[in-house]
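A brief tutorial aside. Many learners find it easier to grasp structure tokens once they have seen a single protein encoded end to end. The record that follows does exactly this for Lipoprotein releasing system transmembrane protein LolC. Read the sequence first, then the structure, and try to relate runs of similar tokens to stretches of the chain.
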Amino acid sequence: MTEIAEQTDWTKADKASGRSTMPFSAFEWFLAGRYLRARRKEGFISVIALISFIGIMLGVATLIIVMAVMNGFRTELIGRILGLNGHMMVQSATGTFINYEAAAARIREVDGVVRVTPLVEGQVMASARQTASGALVRGMSTENLANFDIIADGIEGGSLDTYRNLEADGQSPLLLGARLAQALGVGVGDKITLLSPRGASTPFGTTPRVKAYIVAATFQIGMSEYDSSFIFMPLSEAQAFFRQNGSVSGIEVMIEKPDRVKDFTPSIKAAAGDIANVYDWQQMNGTFFNALQIERNVMFIILTLILLVAALNIISGLFMLVKDKGPDIAILRSMGATRGAMMRVFLIVGAAIGVLGTIAGFIIGVLFCENIEAIRQALIFLTGAQLFDPAIYFLNELPAEMEMSEVISVVVMSLVLSLLATIYPSWRAARLDPVEALRYE
């Protein structure tokens, strides 16, 4: 009775001041606040409201965190792939690029081109100490190899100076992926044998090409596919080994803006010549990046279900609140409160849960992403378990990269779902018949 009397006082005050016709008046906010602060006998309704709040908060935070981590992984993978393979590959339609030096010089003059690297590639069988493994040999000049930051920064054993000195002494140095070196059981200074099917032609067929090389250094860039299969050697040595004297397999091109690679294709092709074919990184890795995009979209849809469940909790909580407050609504309606006022009261109740939960989830998600590596280290310390083991994921740190557009879309979606969840229960409260509500009171 005390609660109804307080509500009556607010109704009279609103009427006296002329505020009863104003939407979202002080009376409506006061009443919504009283309904959010449930009394002890209405504890179950308060629990449902709390569960709805936690559901919205966890849904928003989880979406922000997961999407940021997936963006971080995608950025890391793209950076490593493009850092090693380049943004564009220019190849000759005849199979080998003979006048590659002139073509490379013309390509360097194109605006936006950062680096041009003629190279020779070929598949080989690498063997050492009775162990063999398939590998991809990439021959390029030592100057160009030193300009690849992802390789220069990833040297584990030996050095590029050793590699350069061995080449200057007329020896045959190699730069070996760390996992490949581990698989073959070799280290810096050891020799490995490379076997290529591109050998000399004889009356009895083609004989394989076999030669021993010195491991000058090992590198690790953080991707198993590359660390376990890539071998670098000087360009002249690769041309001799694969019998491509005076020619290369292709010309690798790095540009300033990889995302706009399609815009550079016509000018690069014109500079390379009529017989050149140009392939960009999106074409060469299209399947891989499409799979990442599909996974990202599916994960977003799945995690959105958390918000839907929380929105359903808001609906159920409001229905129970409307049923419990039926007599109060009937008395207020009989005293002059409009249906619109009653609907707005319950809209405020439901929207408050959604807005507060969204704000809390946004804050938790942003703070988690900003400190995700520290949190990972803390969990490792507390549990003793290795979370995101670098030996498996090949990343020393857990990446997280928030995109403002995604964060805004998550927040907006949460607010819209919360608001939509309040409409039908609020409409039911507004349609409540005072006579039926008070019949058995």
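Self-check: The chain has a mean pLDDT of 80. If you spotted this yourself, you are ready for the next section.
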